Amino acid sequence: MPFVKGYTKQDGTPVRAHWRAPAGTSQQTALAIGIVAAVFVFGGSGTSTGGGTGTGRLPAPRSSSAVTYPIKWPGWEKTAPRQAPAPAPSVSYPIRRPEWQQTPPRPVPTVSYPIKWDRNGEGR
Q1: Cα 47 → chain centroid
Q2: Does the reported pTM lie above 0.85?
């Protein structure tokens, strides 16, 4: 891969030094990805390449005769049906906080109304 040194474009934009892929590598990369995908799709047959005999799949397990189906647990034999818990409110409205009981003092107005605009002798 060729190394491109840093330079400045005609419009004044600086370009840092970087590695650039040579021409034609996008096609080669696509071909390599296709080959890897084909190996994964067609190559995973699950058979052994060791050449030994009897290396196939194991037989399915057989059920034991000591097991009785359906399986029941002692906790499942309750006579009364289980009822869902009744919903209970977790918040009572309106919400009041202790610091809200004290109201802040009201501000004292510093301006007396009505405002007289002609104080300086000029009328509006």
Answers
A1: 39
A2: no
